[in-house]
Amino acid sequence: MAVWSGGLNPFLAVLPVFPYLGPQGGRSERGGPFIFNGDFPMATKDQPKPLMPHATATWLVDNTALSFEQIAEFCGLHILEVQAMADDLAGSKYTGRDPVHSGELTQAEIEKGQADSSYVLKMHKAPVEVTRTKGPRYTPVSKRQDKPDGIAWILRNHPEVSDAQISKLIGTTRNTIGALRDRTHWNIANITPKDPVTLGLCSQRELDAMVAKAAKRAGITEDAEAAARGDRNEREKLIEELRAERDASHKAAAEAAQEAEAEAWLAARRAAEAAEQKIDPESGFI
Questions:
Q1: 44: Cβ–Cβ under 8 A, 6 or more apart, which residues?
Q2: How far apart are CA 168 and CA 10, in angstroms?
Q3: pTM of the entire structure?
Q4: 165: nearest Cα among 213, 200, 197
Q5: Does residue 2 fall inside a structural domain?
Q6: In this predicted model, what pLDDT tens digit does every residue of 46-69 receive, in sequence order?
Q7: Domain encompassing residue 34
């Protein structure tokens, strides 16, 4: 039996080459074959896209005769996604959204596209960007259970802060704040005051700004500054006393070392003198 040793397999050279059957611009019956020509048309970047691209594409597939290329280009999707919607092979099922009703397309524009498969649909009215309305700040779902602990901490450590400020900082309601203040909250037995910054409910800068504003409004800024000034003076006095004690101890230790050195020198001197005064028995002299 012959074994292929590498290089071009001679058996592959005689195999017929079949074109890939995939989607193309021309639209046939649902589920019918399409000859893939190598292009994956995508949407142009200059034109705004529908607010709900997949739902809009689903509606256009079900209710118009537009080509897959036109739908994909208008909705900003890949042409294979559009074909999957048409063949009911998409992983997610979308409820169609009428672009005519929303003002993104007109019926005349759809008719132009149906008459000419190379026509590029133009957006009639771009969707309005959805902006969040003014209100309590958003808190992730994973951190909402920590809100009562953060509110309890603020109520205990900063009673001068108003309910409106707490509501804006933490993102809660005044009823919840009132229940925690009056200790009538349904879960009051399990609430432990914790720093909201540590819990991730706000930043330290936001908390400091709120406390400073509340203190200024309550008129306790001067008292707080005076107390801080007094604490600073007492701290400085304590540091000076400790420094003086340290200097005195160093001085006493130096003096004691000098005295010990002098006593040692004197003892050595006396020992040397005593050795010189010993009688030598051979010479007979003192």
A1: 73, 120
A2: 76
A3: 0.38
A4: 213
A5: no
A6: 788 888 899 999 999 999 999 999
A7: 19-115
